[in-house]
Amino acid sequence: MKPNRFLFIAIGVSALAFAFIAASGINKNLVYYWTPTQLRASGGKAYGATIRLGGMVAPGSIRRSGTTGVEFDVQDAGTLVHVRSTGVPPQMFRDNIGVVVEGTMTRGGAFECHRLMVSHNNQYRAPKPGHPVDQQQMEKYIREAK
After folding, report:
1. What is the predicted pLDDT for the residue at 5?
2. CA gyration radius for the chain?
3. Spatial separation of the C-alpha atoms in residues 53 and 103, rounded to whole Å
4. CA nearest neighbour of 55 among 30, 43, 42, 72
């Protein structure tokens, strides 16, 4: 076999092996982003897969469990998904706020969450006239910003 031909074959085989390894690694680390309706429609495909579920916290559904855990429902246009989170929720977590939870769907119908993120806008709102400003809190924010 000529040296040039061997080199081209070796490079081709190496490229195919690299592509296969990269593709299989991507599939293992792929995280789907679904709404509650899409999650329910997916059937068995959702069980065991790592999923990011996005929607709104259903009003009146928040229940504290233990010292750090929280259970609540995430909804979209017409579907509810019950979520169990074991971590401490963010300070802004409340009813009717947009959330993205990352975790897995269980066969029991609940979404086991290991990461809870709230969605909020990026606008600063000055204190309303007549409302006192907490001077110590303001100084703390200024120190942390430096």
Report:
1. 83
2. 24
3. 8
4. 72
